[in-house]
């Protein structure tokens, strides 16, 4: 979506079908694994931050007006955007790292094409909950090992062994700060999603 | 007029004075339509009866002259997404905006969409 500041607003759409289709990928991983960094390295916009306030409404109460002792929980989300073409917009959402926000993950996963689990080799175990979550939901994911400066560099087989995942799960090494590296991570995820559908990807330039 | 001296009717224990849903009059549901965080919305017409809208509605209308997601609107308005969804429901019911839900999970993923995403990432 290019700059929209021209005086002549584009023709007002007549139907919602004329709007682009939005799709979503998730970037998960433990605290400090580089989720927001990865989003920022590939996003066409500076990552935005928004928040969702979860109230009893989320648990089925219709109206919170007048509720005196309502508990609210605020979950902050970072996200970025990639305009794929006139008809498709890709959003990248970093998942909130804390496990007490699992309920937010459910909403995030709704309609997600797949997920990247960022692993930090200094704290490999911090990505285990994310792996378990996506495995349990049947959501396609890849593991991207963020190669931090000064951290021990593992091979992908070592990481696969530590995570106890099979050969069919892509594990890629990356530098979340580098756009080309981030692109490769996202490409490997989309290819993995396609292969799970039994469809070979057409060669891309 | 009422004079209350130094004491005010609110205090620390009252919590924040502007509750998240104060701007929606306490409503937490968005009317007939369920918005996703990546539902895209766009203004459906250039003129509307502004007198019956709140300032937040008008800000949303000014932000969605081009298609924009619920999450982006929330970030720009600095309001929680749930609040923005309620306000968008108002605008949708009035016919002021159009909304498109994201690719539905039941039909997902469509191959041509995935191929487009793959190509789009490669072009970055």
UniProtKB/TrEMBL annotation, chain A:
Cited CDD domains: Ras_like_GTPase
Family note: Belongs to the GPN-loop GTPase family.
Name the record gives this protein: Signal recognition particle receptor subunit beta
Organism: Allonocardiopsis opalescens
Keyword Magnesium among record annotations: no
Origin: domain of life: Bacteria
Alphabetical list of Gene3D superfamilies matching this protein: P-loop containing nucleotide triphosphate hydrolases
Keywords: GTP-binding, Hydrolase, Nucleotide-binding, Receptor
Gene Ontology MF: a single term: GTP binding
Pfam family, one: ATP_bind_1
TrEMBL record, chain B:
Organism of this sequence: Allonocardiopsis opalescens
PANTHER family noted in UniProt: DUF742 DOMAIN-CONTAINING PROTEIN
InterPro entries in UniProt: DUF742 (IPR007995)
Pfam families: DUF742 (PF05331)
Protein name, per record: Uncharacterized protein DUF742
